[in-house]
Amino acid sequence: MENLLQQETLTLIGFDESRDPAETLKDIEGLFDRVWKLYPSKDGRKAALRHFKASVKTVGDLSSILIALHNYLQSGNVKRGFIKNGSTWFNNWQDWTFPSPSMMRGTGQIRRPPADQAMDWANNDSVTRGLPLEGKP
To answer: Most buried residue, 66, 112, 123, 133, by most Cβ within 10 Å?
Structure first.
C-alpha cells in the first residue's frame, strides 16, 4: 500500500522510476522546481529551496512532501485563500504528512496514517486511559 501511494505521488511530478533514485535525487533543484509549481504562493522561493534541500534526502522524503502538499492544499485555510509563504510551508512541511483534524477543519477529509500506525496509536494506554469503556457512559 505504501509503495503504491509513493508511486502515485511521485508520478505527479514526473518521477522516472527507471532511473536510479540516488541519480534522480542529485537533481534536487529540478525536483524542487516540480514541487514548487504545485505550491500556490510563489513568495519565499529562495528560502523554500534551502528548506527543501535540507529535508528531502530520499525518495521516501520526496513522496512524503508531495503527500504533505496534497493535504495542505485540501485544508480549510487554503480553500479560504489563506496560503502560507512558500518558505514557511517548506520549513514545516512534515506537519502536513499526517495533519491533525484541527489542521484539516472545514475540508470534510482527513488523511489517515497507515493502518499499522493507527493500531499502535489506538493500543497506547496513555491515549485511551480515561476514556469510557464501550457501552458504558
So the answer is: 66
Question: What pLDDT, in 10s, does the model give residues 20-50?
Answer: 666 667 788 988 998 999 999 999 999 999 9
Any idea which residue has 520549513 for its cell?
91
Please count the other Cβ atoms lying within 10 Å of the Cβ belonging to residue 17: 10
Instruction: Look up the pTM and report it.
Output: 0.65
SS3 24: helix
Return the C-alpha cell found at 53. Answer: 534541500
On whether residue 130 sits in a domain, the answer given is: no
55, 57, 61, 63 alpha-carbon torsion, rounded to 10°: 120
pLDDT in tens, 101-117: 888 776 555 454 454 44
Is residue 44 within 8 A of residue 105, CB to CB? The reply is: no
Whether residue 118 lies inside any domain: the answer is no
Look-up: residue for cell 533543484? 29
Sign for the pseudo-dihedral over CA of 42, 44, 50, 55: negative
More confident residue, 4 or 82: 82
Domain span holding position 68: 2-12+28-108
- Residues 6 or more apart in contact with residue 40 via CB below 8 angstroms: 73, 78, 83
